[in-house]
Every structure is written in structure tokens, then in C-alpha cells.
Amino acid sequence: MRGILFTLALATMVTNAGCALLAAPGVEEAGSLAGVALPGMSGTLSTESTVSVNKSWIKANDLQAQYTQIEAAALAHTQEMEQGERAATEGILKSMAKSDSDPEIADLALWVKAGGDPQYALNSAFARDNDDAARAQVVRMLEGMSERSDDPRLYELALWVRAGGDEKVALEYALHHDAKTESADSHS
Q1: What is the pLDDT of residues 149-177, one digit of tens each?
Q2: What residue ranges do the domains of the chain occupy?
């Protein structure tokens, strides 16, 4: 320790005193010793800072690894939830297709199983189910109108709607036809 302090003191004197000190005998030797001691000392400081930086990198890598594990666990949980949702949606769609005898809803179930969007498939199936319910209601209305007015054309119109015909057009025709029939009956 004394040797390092002496070397530092001599190096400071050499730096501050300038050339006059270098001319003194023995100082030249001390200056060369200072040149040897200082790089070694800076090497020690450099090694310590490198170790410190390496430790911080190791700590950062460990934190990154923990974060990656947490992300992987969250992703696995999300995938499990999506698979459960997909399976439930597929089951609902299969049940709807079976109860309605609707091959298009059965196709939606296959589409979901193959990776299709479960929410879109359910929305489509429910919309189709609502359309089918509306169609069935129009068919019942047309059949009732046919019975009341004893008009087989309205019954045929009901069959046409049941087969896939446009229920709005059928209702418009039936209401227009029914209005004509009532006005003809009231004039008679």
C-alpha cells in the first residue's frame, strides 16, 4: 500500500512540477515506476467495473428470463381459454344444427373446429336462427290468412316462403291481395 501511495505522490509531483523535476537524479526512475504502477491500478479498476457490468447483465438476463416465463405462462393460459371457447362454441353449433336440421350451422361448427372465429360463427348461427324464426312466423301468418279467406294461393305462398322464398315479398303480396279481397267483399 505504501508503495502505491509513494508512486501516486511521485506521479503527481512529476505532473505538477514539470521538466525541472525530471532532471533530478532518481526521479526519472520514479517516473518510469509511476508509469508502470498506474496502468496496473487502472487495470484493477477496469476489471472491477467489468465484473460489475457483467453482474448487471446477468441480473438483466435473469429478469428477462423470468419475464419470458411469465409471458409464456400467460400465453398458454390464453390458448387454453381459446380452446375451451372453441370447443364450447363447436358443441353449441352442433346442437343447434341437429335441433334445426340445418346443414349450414353444421358447417359453421366444422369451420370453428378448423380454426374459424367462434364469436363470428355464433353470431351467424343466431342471426340465421332468428331469420328462420321470422320465416316460420310469416309461414304461420300466411297459412292463417289462407284458412280465413279460403284462398289456396296464400297457402302456396306459405309453402314458397317455407322453401326459401322472400318472406317480405310474400307478406306484401298477401296483404295487398287480402286488402283487395276485403274491398271486393265490402262492395258486394
Answers
A1: 888 888 898 899 888 888 888 888 888 87
A2: 117-188
